[in-house]
Amino acid sequence: MKLNQPEVEALLKDVGAWLEGHFQLTSGMHSDQYVQCQRIMQYPRHGLMLAEALAAKVIAAGLRPTAVVGPALGAVHWEVYVAQALDKEFAEIPVRGIFAERPEGKFEIRRGIELEPGEEVLVVEDVTTTGGSAQEVIKLVRSFDAIPVAVGAIIDRSGGSIDFGLPFMSLVNLQLASYPPADCPLCKSGKPVVKPGSSKLKV
Ligand SMILES: [Zn+2]
User: If you placed Cys at 22, which of 41, 86, 111, 191 could pair as Cys (CB 3.0 to 4.6 Å)?
Assistant: First the structure.
């Protein structure tokens, strides 16, 4: 399954995932645009289609991860769709989809789920801006002596500035403006900022 950039962009718009307003991103930066990937992920057919496109890149790179780990809440659902897409390809080995969460500020995998030493792991997130969350998940994976083999995202809005020290695969590159809060023109205009993903988001 291959998807080109205009096809993914059209899907983001069709499902109302591409929002305009004044947003504080997870990275702390402000922006006038935000992509709310859960609006796609609520549709398994769309989530799986994107996951198959990412899985095709992972397989083309010769990688065979048996676990897909992503940071909650952004990567919840996405990590399972990607695991499902890989599972279909690697019929003989079950592929797991696992989310990492931050109950006390640091990412953990809870509920007795563990990664195996030496297990190859694909780290996924929905949108990569600074890559901070993915970096933390890479560290978490290594804490199990498992091996992160690549990072996969739906959207790369980093402008190519990220080096995970691993292959980084994304389905679209979006060059959306973002600003440090002190230089944010939307803050200067007095428009209230919303933190997407929190209960304060009203769109
Ligand atoms: Zn602002």
Answer: 191
CATH number of 5-16+44-176: 3.40.50.2020
pTM of the model: 0.89
Residue 98 forms beta bridges with which residues? 69
pLDDT profile of the chain (203 residues), mean per 10: 89 94 90 93 96 96 97 94 95 93 93 97 94 95 98 93 95 91 96 76 40
**C-alpha distances out from residue 31 to 28, 154, 159, Å:** 10, 18, 14
Domain range summary for the chain, segments of one domain joined by +: 5-16+44-176
Distance 196 CA to ligand 1 centre (A): 13
SS3 content of the chain, % helix, strand, coil (to 5): 30, 25, 45
Span from the CA of 69 to the centroid of ligand 1 (angstroms):
31
